[in-house]
Design brief:
The complex is a heterodimer. Chain A is of the alpha+beta class. Chain A has 5 helices and 16 strands. In chain B, strand 2, helix 3 and strand 3 form a beta-alpha-beta unit. By secondary structure, chain B is of the alpha/beta class. Chain B starts with a helix and ends in an 8-residue tail after the last strand. Helices cover 48% and strands 17% of the residues of chain B. Chain B is elongated and about 85 Å long. Chain B has 8 helices and 5 strands, in the order αβαβαββαααααβ. Chain B has a 4-stranded mixed beta sheet with strand order 1-2-3-4, sandwiched between helices. The chains are: A alpha+beta, B alpha/beta. At the A-B interface, strand 10, strand 11, helix 3, helix 4 and helix 5 of A face helix 1, helix 8 and strand 5 of B.
Chain lengths: 356, 250
């Protein structure tokens, strides 16, 4: 059963939000600040209304699948949300609400990394990100509009294990020499084998289908030493989703990264060769455990030429990523100009050598 | 950043390759079939011989050979000379190391610039030194002394043109110094390729969203233990490639 949780100010009754600067809850109406621990998670449970509305005949068959309807405790407005939505804002009164049922029981995250950077920092990072790039279309700089900036707690599965693996490589040593008439090249071939153990801690895998996996992996890494035990109070003022990709479904991606790490790490111990090529690797995972955590990410959506561009910022470290369109005409022009310049330089050097 | 550095590296390598190609447009005066000279010595002697030829129009060539492939020393010397230069005016001193014999061949107007005694003195200067390098060096020094007493002629002139007007000599020199025009499109093509690589590597930085390849950043510090390793030699092969012959002068 899902319930809506609102973090209310004990002083004035206003909806409180998590303040990233103070790392505490703050009432935007009376400026009162509270420690997370001072706000019991069940403080407003007694006030919760449980309203599972029948989707009835108003929706076509399957049309409303994956959607939930909640009633806002403050204004009684209906909040229609995705089945995975765990925290959002009431579209009528702007109240920050947390769907408590999305994070209870087995769905309760083990850890949460609180936001360290606010919306302003995210907007400034976007400006900086775009301004440092070359060959961006001028119209993109002028016309792109920031449609939405939202702080989202993205569900992640964290995998910890001891990996036991082995890898094979084919290596070459190349030796060259010459005499008066001939040049000789001796190529020696080697079969290289390495086996060993490597421990991995908290490899994250995106647990939400709504978030692009490449975007989430691009904002890594997060510093898990700053993670705290989950408390719904941290979600106040942000969006949050519960996972819709299970830990079992996420394991293949974790295994893939572990496998590549074994290949790369063992490769570093193969020295003294001119060429080394991996021929395959096997691995077993022991002592594997996984945790469920929420990672803070700022998502910024812009629109240009009818196309959506999504940027993401690590809400903890500030690492900013996002693809920017390239002005192909400008690239071609610059390539031709630089190419002509280098060509002239080469020809000039030839003249210089000839004259000397 | 790595892509940018790589692009610049490629650019530098291509520029250097072009430079090396251009500088390889030289001629071989020393035929050291027995590798008696070090790389540095060889280059130094080649530079001296080139200077003498450009100053006095005389190509003075040395050949240290291990046999003459069934030819007489003179025939072999003639063959080596013809293979390595188009200058009709020159001297070749052949040292057949296997038979401990010498052959001296003069062609074109060489006999008018150096008399028999002078050439014999040069050969002796070469012979009297224990070191091949010092012998050839002494020979070139002696040749320069003898030639300094003669008149200047350019490499493409014949003796009958010794008294050419200065203007004519300059024109010939200008023709020699120019870089052939076919290098213009070649330089441009290389430049465009390098420019394309550099610009595209910069433009590629506009895309920053990609999957991570591995999880090495999540490796537990000090947890990697190698329990087994083996480097097994499989086999080796040797490829032999004939050295490219030096290009002739024209």
């Amino acid at each position: 059963m899902s319930t809506i949780l609102e973090q209310k100010c004990p002083n004035c009754g206003g909806a409180v939000e998590f303040d990233v600067g103070a790392q505490r809850l703050k009432c935007p109406y009376c400026d009162t600040e509270f420690n997370i621990t001072d706000m019991p998670e069940n403080v407003s449970e007694q006030a919760d209304s449980i309203n599972w509305n029948s989707q009835g005949a108003q929706w076509g068959e399957g049309e409303a699948d994956g959607m939930n309807v909640y009633v806002c405790n403050s204004c009684a407005g209906e909040i229609v949300a995705d089945a995975t939505t765990g925290a959002t804002t009431c579209p009528y009164c702007g109240n920050q609400v947390v769907m408590k049922g999305q994070f209870s029981g087995a769905l309760r995250p083990d850890l949460v990394i609180p936001f360290k950077l606010d919306k302003k920092a995210a907007k400034e990072a976007l400006k900086k990100h775009i301004s440092t790039k070359k060959f961006v279309p001028k119209s993109f700089l002028a016309d792109n509009r920031l449609e939405e900036v939202k702080g989202v707690y993205v569900p992640h599965w964290l995998f910890t294990c001891d990996a036991i693996g082995n890898a094979n490589y084919k290596a070459k040593k190349i030796k060259r020499w010459s005499d008066a008439d001939y040049e000789y090249t001796e190529t020696s071939y080697f079969d290289i084998y390495r086996s060993g153990n490597i421990g991995f801690d908290n490899i994250p895998v995106d647990g939400s289908t709504k978030m692009p996996d490449d975007l989430m992996e691009s904002v890594e890494p997060f510093d898990l030493s700053q993670a705290v035990d989950f408390n719904t109070a941290y979600l106040a003022g942000y969006l949050a989703d519960k996972y819709d990709v299970s830990a079992e479904e996420s394991m293949p991606r974790a295994n893939e990264r572990i496998r590549q790490s074994i290949i790369d790490s063992f490769r570093e111990t193969v020295k003294g060769y001119d060429e080394v090529e991996n021929q395959g690797a096997n691995m077993n995972v022991a002592n594997g455990i996984y945790k469920y955590a929420l990672y803070p990410v700022w998502l910024l959506n812009t629109k240009w030429n009818g196309e959506d561009f999504t940027f993401a910022m690590n809400g903890q470290t500030g690492k900013f990523v996002g693809n920017i369109p390239t002005d192909k005409k400008a690239v071609t022009k610059a390539s031709l100009l630089l190419g002509a310049g280098i060509g002239a330089l080469i020809y000039g050097l030839l003249w210089l050598i000839e004259l000397l | 950043m790595i892509k940018k550095i790589f692009a610049i590296f490629v650019a530098v390598v291509i520029c250097l390759s072009a430079t090396v190609c251009a500088s390889a447009y030289t001629y071989q005066y020393i035929n050291d079939d027995l590798s008696k000279l070090s790389y540095t010595e060889y280059n130094e002697l080649e530079a001296i011989a080139e200077r003498l030829e450009s100053s006095y129009g005389l190509c003075i060539m040395f050949c240290i050979s291990d046999g003459t492939s069934g030819l007489t020393d003179y025939e072999y010397a003639q063959q080596v000379y013809a293979e390595n230069t188009d200058n009709e005016n020159g001297v070749i001193i052949l040292n057949n190391d296997s038979d401990k014999t010498y052959a001296v061949l003069l062609s074109g107007n060489a006999e008018e610039l150096l008399d028999e005694n002078e050439v014999e003195n040069m050969r002796k200067a070469y012979d009297e030194n224990n070191s091949y390098y010092e012998g050839i060096y002494a020979c070139y020094s002696l040749a320069e002394d003898y030639l300094e007493n003669g008149s200047y002629i350019s490499s493409d002139d014949t003796l009958s043109e010794k008294i050419d007007e200065p203007g004519e000599t300059d024109d010939v020199a200008d023709e020699k110094d120019g870089v052939p025009f076919f290098w213009i499109p070649v330089s441009l093509a290389i430049g465009l390729l390098v420019g394309f690589l550099i610009i595209n590597s910069i433009a590629a930085k506009n895309k920053s969203v990609r999957m991570q390849e591995n999880a090495t950043v999540y490796t537990r510090p000090g947890s990697m233990i190698i329990t087994g390793n083996a480097d097994n030699f499989l086999y080796s092969n040797v490829e032999r490639k004939e050295k490219p012959k030096q290009e002739n002068k024209n």
